[in-house]
Amino acid sequence: MNKFDDQATQSLLDKNLITENQYQEIKAYRNLNIFSLNAELKLFLYLSVLLFTSGIGILIYENIDTIGHIAILSILLIVIAVCFYYCFKKSKGFQKTETVFESPFLEYLVLAANILTCIFIGYLQFQYKPFGTNYDLATLIPTLISFFCAYYFDNKSVLTIAITGLAAYIGLSVTPQDLLHNDFYSNETLSYSAIILGGLLILWTIYSSRTNLKTHFNFIYLTFALHLISIASISNLTDSDYDGIWMLFGLVLAASSYYFYKVSHETKAMSLYVFMIIYAYIGLNIFFFRILDLVDFSGIWELFVFMLPVYFIGSIVLFIKLIKNFHKEITE
């Protein structure tokens, strides 16, 4: 039994949450060194879904002239219908609380069916344009289907696709690389859209908590909201061309950081806490240097340069201390 598990179990015993006999049974069980392959098997299932859907895409690309568009769309539609038929047949139906399925295979079959549906609608729009030039509708339909599947089948992976599709519908790319390259600078409306979407996702988590509607989805919504609001705010802190408007984004970032500081403690979410600190630290430094830019500190600029190493070292030490304290708080 490793040191962490031993300390955690001992803590339960000290608080009289378990008896001495239960402690000895837990200790004896852990000393058997039995481990679960559940995570590894789910990883292989996830990879198989990705490889299968990627293979479908490659097959379409390399044989599009040979097979024909109608044949490809027909095959996709048949596969999608079979997948959804099996999923609906084996599912327990919609439930407000978290649903646990007997077989993890169903979860990844839903994911495969959803990805293939997105491929089908995208390919149909690209080749035959049933929605005309309204590409937003071609994005919105698979997004709505993804939200339905996510809630009906209780699937977090599909929910991620749905939120990504919703962001794409308003003109945002929410992959880590694309977020940093979104044109927030020249298109201020895009920044407001990102912040508003992040705010709406937060409001939805509040509503879900009050109505007890799939509350285990809240972490995914909050993760997207944190990144959207923080990156949009930081981008405009550095490159806003309008006098004073950068202060507004600074206030937004400050409010967001405070909110996610509270939420990360309430939900004991380490990732939210870490990213909140990183974004707040970056924003604070940008805000500080923009203030310095407005004031003439030429006489003591050398002092600032001299203090920079001490400042950054102190920041690293403080960051480590905050993470350790938070970890200690959520594990007690």
UniProtKB/TrEMBL annotation:
Keyword 4Fe-4S assigned: no
All residue ranges annotated as the DUF2157 domain in the record: 11-158
InterPro entries listed in its UniProt record: DUF2157 (IPR018677)
Presence of keyword Transmembrane helix: yes
Record-annotated membrane-spanning stretches: 43-61, 67-88, 108-126, 132-153, 158-177, 189-207, 219-238, 244-261, 273-292, 304-323
Pfam families per the UniProt record, alphabetical: DUF2157
Keywords: Membrane, Transmembrane, Transmembrane helix
Protein name: Predicted membrane protein
